[in-house]
Design a protein that fits this description.
Strand content: under 5%
Largest sheet: none
Shape: elongated
Structural class: mainly alpha
Radius of gyration: 22 Å
Distance between the termini: 40 Å
């Protein structure tokens, strides 16, 4: 039972840290007017990947004595991103309600993307009428939460391969060899 409380406590702490970094990055993009730039948006994936890896390694080394299974590392990464997603969703609710023009910028960027992909004006108009119904502060914030968990799952599926570390079955024998060599 103690491990579960440590699991969620650690996930919330690292999720809080990663959420703060993500919100600060979003604020920087917002202030500079670059919040609809896709290329800069991809940097957030690198930030999330680094944050998940650092959190998994810290949890493994501090809480689990240097050993973690693939499944536990995966679950921990997803839990961290769940907490991060809650924080970024709260930020999104606040920013979308403070700046109603932000949703209009997202709509314009989406429309431009549709046109660049080769859709006709009629297709773009039909797609935008559907998309506009979903572009509300609440819906965008909820989709942000689900996107964070989904993205965290994908990232954690990969990072857990490298973070996992099994306890050696011969740990006692290895420790005894070290003691013998010290004498």
């Amino acid at each position: 039972m103690e491990q579960k409380s440590t699991f969620w406590k650690s996930a919330m702490i690292y999720g809080l840290y990663l959420g703060i970094v993500a919100v600060l990055y979003s604020v920087i993009l917002y202030v500079t007017g670059q919040n609809t730039d896709k290329a800069l948006g991809y940097i957030s994936f690198a930030v999330y990947t680094a944050g998940i890896v650092l959190a998994q390694i810290a949890y493994r080394n501090r809480e689990l004595n240097g050993a973690i299974s693939y499944g536990r590392a995966l679950g921990f990464g997803v839990a961290v991103m769940l907490c991060t997603g809650v924080i970024t969703s709260l930020y999104n609710i606040i920013i979308f309600n403070l700046d109603a023009g932000l949703i209009d910028q997202i709509k314009a960027a989406t429309e431009e993307q549709y046109l660049k992909s080769g859709m006709s004006e009629d297709q773009v108009e039909a797609a935008m009428s559907m998309a506009s119904k979903m572009m509300t502060p609440g819906f965008l914030s909820i989709s942000s939460l689900f996107g964070a968990v989904f993205g965290g799952t994908i990232i954690s599926l990969i990072t857990s391969i490298f973070v996992k570390k099994q306890v050696s079955e011969d740990a006692f024998d290895e420790a005894m060899e070290e003691v013998k060599t010290e004498e």
